[in-house]
Amino acid sequence: MAIDLGTARTGVAVSDELGMLAQPWKTLPGGEASLEAVVAAVQEVKPGRIIVGLPRNMDGSSGPAAESAKDFAGRLRERVSCPVDLWDERLTTVAAQRSLRESGRKARDQRGVIDQVAAQILLQSWLDRAPCDLS
Is 0.90 topped by the overall pTM? Predict the structure, then answer.
C-alpha cells in the first residue's frame, strides 16, 4: 500500500497480490484526519508493507513537507503491525497530472483521483526497485 499525503486529500494505492502492479485505490481526507483514515484503510486492506511518499525538494533536501511525512510515518508505525517505509515521491503529482491529461481527463475532473494516481506512481516506483520478497 502506498500513501500520498496531502493537506486536502491523501491518495492511496495498492498492489496486486504478486507485488508487480500498483493500482489507484482510494482518496482519503488529508491533514489531521489522514492518520485515522489511513489506519482504517490499513485494517481494511491488510497490506504487507506501507510506503509513505517523502516529498523531497528537487535538490534532494528536505523541507517542511518532508518533515511532516516523516512525522506521519512515525505515528503510523505506532498504530499498525506492518513495516512503514518512506520513499522519494518527487514529481509523482506532476506525472499523475500528465497521465490523467493524456487519458482525456480535464483538469477540473482530476481532483478526486489525482492523489490516488500519484500514490499509484509512488508505489509502482517502489515495486520496480524493491527486492522480490515483499514480506
Answer: no
